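Workshop exercise sheet. Pairs work together: one partner reads the sequence aloud, the other fills in the structure field after running the prediction. Swap roles for the next sheet.
Pair: D.N. / O.F.
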Amino acid sequence: MDDMAKPKQEEIEDEAMTAAAEAEAEADVTLDAPPFEAGPDIEAVIAERDQYRDRFMRALADAENSRKRSERDRREAEQYGGSKLARDLLPVYDGLARALEAATDEQREHAKALLDGVELTMRELLNVFRKHGIEPIAPEVGDRFDPQAHQAMFEAPVPETKAGDIIQVMATGFMLHDRLLRPAQVGVSSTPAS
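Structure field:
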């Protein structure tokens, strides 16, 4: 019985070896062929995908820039939107200040109530200005001239001053938050420094 089993086992081994050889030959043929051939259609689709991705990224960046720009514009409109109205109210302040400066002692005695009303009105106007971010620039005589906040209306040689010192204040200036609404109008000494 062992003799009969041997030929069958040899036949099975031969068949297995033949099948393995055929499978290996097929595998060689499959490995030699490219697994995926990128044709012109695939390359066009990849290029189009890249183009759409680039467009999408640019649109996303544009949307973000627009959002930031509109936020900045909204903040500026909120802070500086009333600058024209504020600028138009500055002559009212100037008129009230001149009225108080021009009043003599005699007028102060006779029209005390009127002048108190003018002072209260001026104080209330300044409170409204401060509430909306408008701050006065009130230089004093002897301060240094600052071209960022002052406007030189004239220059004059004045003894015992240095060039660039303020010798007269003609009008108070105003800032709206961090922007100059109106420079303070001043006279400046032109005496050379000794």
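Discussion prompt: The beta strands are 134-137, 150-156, 166-171, 173-176, 179-182, 184-189. What would you look at next?
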